[in-house]
Amino acid sequence: MELKVLFEVITPLGFSVRVSPEYWELIVTIKHPSMAGRETEVRDALARPDEVRQSRKDTRVYLFYRARRPGRLTCAVAKRLNGEGFLITAYVTEAIKEGVRIWPR
Length: 105
Hints:
With 105 residues, this protein is α+β, with helices and mostly antiparallel strands.
């Protein structure tokens, strides 16, 4: 069975991140309803982030930040397993979380 993909984006870290329509629906209905209709902002955060942090808790998890307007950032959280990435969640925030800054280098 082939997995449906809502979107797939190549990150500047050299791996792609994908999300299925079903998982995106979970994000926008359960996890972060404010992200409904913001697929383009999430794709932009993944493809052209202002900053990327590596999670302190899990080195396979990356937080991609892109400014929406002053004081508001879109954060796309992705996990890389066996060379492939998938979106864990996405949300709007005012602050960058702790973690190792890996982009820009």
